């Protein structure tokens, strides 16, 4: 009997077969309900300015298992969640996207700016430094003294989860 | 009421004017803010790279508050959304036990007892408008402002459950209590563009400038998120240099505006620091001195 490769039931088997640990962290169960209406990309503030970033196409390519992991536009999401709110099929396009960027990050290929930000968290526990200048300014506003380095737990966690190697 | 005061990354290091204002306001409403010295990043910046780690980072912070039997107050929209998203997914017992396995190694455990509130939510849903109105001693009716909620206090709305995902009204209602006149922005609120600056600075700045221009002719734009603040404040300096655009609209945190209405000195609220677009003209209109 002939079965179409894109049939939803078979499709979902396909994604299970090809999914790994990281895929299961995101809620992408509705991926195969996407009927490509374009509500997501139509409401996306980025696509209007940078047409190369198109979340509808990303969902399509994920379904078809043909994501180009070198495509730098995969990192252009603002995380504004407009696509998530408006999707009539509750596909959660942003979570589909993050399942992809998570996989790419595992191979150490996240954009350097994002890696730097995360490296900073593993260095001081925050994504930005509490400088001497800031400490002085804080004091003059009557604000309490804070620890400049709260990274201990973050370092430990990152070692256990593998983030330390991705940055 | 006691709350664990979650500052995250940007508030204590870059926009401590927001922190100073909220500390003053909390005092006025007899809310005790407890500083937990080991609080760190909420996990937001890690989500695109490694979702599981971002959930553990969030759970780690919440677990610290749980040890003190406290719910959490956040100022940043990013912290508000990532901590609440973590609470949402950690209702799943499999994920929760996996996360707790990780947390065990650093001597913590996540139970799911604490709630996470945003400062605007504290004012609107917990303190309530009648109590806020009671404490207003200085009417700001000389100024007109436009509000910018920011994405991460609104969406994902099924998880955050604070206000309408695309037609919010709570911030405008809160601002109206100060007497300030509200100017409705054109169309629906557009993202400030902050996250995009990691990959495409020009596009991020274009989004910020468009977003500001949609607010119309106002004396200030009122925000509640450090990222929106920086995008709009520094964004106007960029607009001047790069795109030859003079906008000159001061950006104020709602907490700063409320602080003025409660009668605090502009200087104590941090209105004379950090702001790249000076607030002097705005304060002069109100008849207030700036430092």
CATH homologous group name of the largest domain in chain A: Alpha-helical ferredoxin
CATH topology of the largest domain in chain B: Rossmann fold
Shape of chain B: globular
General form of chain A: elongated
* Beta-strand share of residues of chain B: 5-15%
The gyration radius over C-alpha positions of chain B equals 19 Å
CATH class value of the largest domain in chain A? Mainly Alpha
Number of DSSP helical runs of chain B: 13
CATH architecture call of the largest domain in chain B: 3-Layer(aba) Sandwich
CATH top level class name of the largest domain in chain B: Alpha Beta
As for the CATH topology of the largest domain in chain A, it is: Fumarate Reductase Iron-sulfur Protein, Chain B, domain 2
Most extensive interface, chain pair and sizes:
A-B, 62 and 58 residues
What's the multimeric state? heterodimer
Domains of chain A (count): 2
Q: How do the helices and strands line up, and which of them pair or pack?
A:
The complex is a heterodimer of chains A (about 170) and B (about 290).
Chain A: H1 8-18, H2 21-25, H3 39-43, H4 45-49, H5 55-63, H6 82-86, H7 93-106, H8 112-124, H9 132-140, H10 152-161, H11 163-166
Chain B: E1 2-6, H1 10-13, H2 16-28, E2 32-35, H3 51-67, E3 71-74, H4 77-89, H5 93-104, E4 116-118, H6 119-127, H7 129-135, E5 144-147, H8 157-160, H9 170-176, E6 181-182, H10 201-213, E7 220-223, H11 226-243, E8 251-253, H12 254-261, H13 280-286
Parallel strand pairs in B: 1-2, 1-3, 3-4, 5-6, 5-7, 7-8
Helix pairs in contact in B: 2-12, 3-4, 3-5, 6-7, 10-11
């Amino acid at each position: 009997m002939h079965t179409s490769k894109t049939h939803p039931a078979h499709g979902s088997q396909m994604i299970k077969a090809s999914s790994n640990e990281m895929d299961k962290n995101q809620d992408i169960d509705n991926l195969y309900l996407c009927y490509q209406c374009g509500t997501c990309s139509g409401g996306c503030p980025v696509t209007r300015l940078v047409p190369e970033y198109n979340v509808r196409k990303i969902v399509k390519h994920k379904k078809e298992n043909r994501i180009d992991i070198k495509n730098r536009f995969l990192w252009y999401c603002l995380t504004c969640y407009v696509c998530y709110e408006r999707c009539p099929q509750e596909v959660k396009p942003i979570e589909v996207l993050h399942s992809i960027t998570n996989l790419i990050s595992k191979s150490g290929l996240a954009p350097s700016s994002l890696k730097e930000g995360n490296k900073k968290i593993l260095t001081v526990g925050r994504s930005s430094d509490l400088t001497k200048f800031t400490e002085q300014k804080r004091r003059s506003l009557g604000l309490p003294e804070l620890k400049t380095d709260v990274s201990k737990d973050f370092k430990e966690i990152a070692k256990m989860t593998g983030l330390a190697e991705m940055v | 009421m006691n709350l664990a005061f979650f500052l995250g990354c940007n508030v204590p290091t870059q926009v401590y004017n927001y922190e100073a204002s909220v500390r003053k306001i909390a005092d006025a409403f007899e809310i005790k803010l407890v500083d937990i010295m080991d609080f760190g990043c909420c996990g937001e910046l890690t989500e695109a790279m490694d979702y599981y780690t971002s959930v553990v980072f969030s759970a780690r912070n919440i677990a610290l508050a749980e040890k003190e039997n406290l719910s959490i107050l956040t100022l940043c929209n990013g912290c508000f959304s990532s901590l609440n998203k973590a609470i949402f997914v950690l209702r799943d017992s499999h994920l929760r036990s996996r996360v707790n396995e990780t947390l065990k190694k650093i001597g913590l455990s996540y139970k799911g007892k604490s709630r996470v509130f945003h400062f605007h939510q504290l004012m609107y849903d917990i303190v309530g408008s009648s109590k806020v109105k009671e404490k207003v001693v200085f009417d700001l009716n000389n100024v007109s402002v436009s509000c910018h909620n920011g994405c991460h206090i609104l969406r994902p709305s099924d998880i955050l459950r604070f206000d309408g995902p695309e037609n919010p009204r709570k911030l405008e209602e809160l601002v109206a209590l100060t007497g300030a006149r509200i100017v409705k922005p054109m169309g629906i609120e557009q993202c400030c563009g902050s996250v995009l600056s990691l990959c495409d600075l020009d596009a991020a700045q274009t989004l910020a400038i468009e977003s500001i221009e949609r607010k119309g002719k106002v004396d200030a734009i009122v925000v509640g998120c450090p990222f929106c603040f920086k995008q709009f404040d520094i964004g106007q300096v960029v607009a001047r240099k790069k795109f030859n655009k003079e906008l000159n609209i001061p950006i104020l945190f709602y907490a700063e505006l409320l602080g003025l209405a409660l009668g605090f000195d502009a200087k104590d609220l941090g209105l004379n620091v950090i702001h790249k677009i000076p607030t002097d003209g705005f304060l002069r209109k109100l008849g207030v001195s700036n430092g």
